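User: Second chain of the day. Same drill as before.
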Amino acid sequence: MTDRLVTTSFDSGTGVATLTFNRPEALNAINIPLAEAFLAAVQGLKDLPHVRCIVLTGAGRAYMAGGDIASMAGSPEQAGRAVSAILDAVNPAILLLRSMEAPVIAAVKGVAAGAGLSLALMADLIIAREDAKFLVAYSGIGAVPDCGGSWFLSHRIGAGRAAELMLLGRTLSAAEAKDWGLITDFATENNYDNLLAEIIRKISSGPTRAFGAFRELTDRAFGDQLASHLEAERAAFLELTRTEDFAEGVSAFLAKRTAQFRGQ
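Assistant: Same format as last time:
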């Protein structure tokens, strides 16, 4: 099964489904069509028999370089419409993936930034190539994480380190991300495929229903609030699209210059 912006492959022998973000010319930056293709691909997994592992990855040089900032340029109303349309597709896809029994693995090479970082953190395991880079990126446009980023960051590495990534704009290498507990493991380019294949093999041959029950329990341990948190992120992001700093951040990003924020 293939979509122009998301490709889906399924190995019926192993039960491994792979979804690939397929906008390599833009480092897989997520725009409305890609978001909608992602939701359709995730919904399509429900029709596949005996899915035992789901792998998310990106075509080309990156996993995902965040949101398509160009779509957020213009008036606050235009930015709000673009953000809402993306989240109308991505948020249900996240909730659907988290409700499935099959564990989700994010296979990350290159950059995972902004929404890309969020969609990596949403996975149960993150396996990175040594050249991978991880950054929150939202502070660069005067916004807050969406796609579950603020939820998964704080749960995975704690509020203190999440604040360090957001407030200081830090970029983590794969080694640093492993040390922080942000990712599961990483390997050199020569060893990466073997590491990823071995982890996929182990997961896909495990007790899938037990894995699904375990994820449900761990999500409940945090208060069963992911769905409402996704909507709180949306509300905060939309409010910030009306600020002067957001307009400046978007303008600076598109002009490839340093933003001059005024706190307004």
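The domain at 6-189 is CATH 3.90.226.10 (2-enoyl-CoA Hydratase; Chain A, domain 1).

User: Great, on to the next one.
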